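Record format v2
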Amino acid sequence: MNTQPKATGHAGGKTTSSNGIIYHGGPVMLGTTNVYYIWYGNWSGNTATSILPTLAGGMGGSPYYNINTSYFDGTGAKISNAVHYSGSKNDNYSQGKALSDSQIQSVVSSAISGGLPKDTNAVYFVLTSSDVTATSGFCTNYCGWHTHGTISGSDIKYAFIGNPDRCPSSCADQTVSPNGNAGADGMASIISHELEEEHTDPDLNAWYDTRGAENADKCAWTFGTTTSSGGALSNVTLGSRRYLIQQNWVNASGGYCSMAY
Ligand SMILES: [Zn+2]
């Protein structure tokens, strides 16, 4: 489900399956999953445009993302530890500064019709600058979310990721951050959350627990062992950078939150 603000985040909990999360029969994303970013609003001069592609480019093959290989579909096919950052597109406020859920889908649709490949094995991330909100509850009900929709006749997976600079107390991990950009570093954890949920539950009918919590929901706002540098906490290296991203739920050995598998 969505990345909920810290105050209302999930705390994990009791379930009836042996690993604390249940398969409900729907598809998972197999093979290499592509990531596209849609930079919505004004990102001029913002280091997020370097920090977040490095995150997506470093995810595949990492011990962190390998957690998702503990999930599989009804045929037993396992999710691959394969994520490819495949490109981006800018959107100069085509839908204004207060986006409804349907307008966010329109942003994705426009990006595809305007040049990004139409890719059913991809996740499209709508990344909004801090002067943009999402009217269904950014900063109050969620920090980000993922879903899917029919775009140009295809089932397209996409996510909304708001900029925590708009509400750091709700959606940022910390105000001093490893890459010197608290908004972007906060988005890194939210992107990770939504990517691993999209991977294991793209149509919202595959992996979630008895309370409806998907894998990343079960570990939201938990970070495991951290190191501190210059007052900024981090817990993982992806590509050339340090990040503080949330743990994910391992679907093995009874189930647990971890940064590696
Ligand atoms: Zn979630």
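The helical segments are 48-59, 101-113, 168-171, 182-200.
DSSP finds four helices and 15 strands in the chain.
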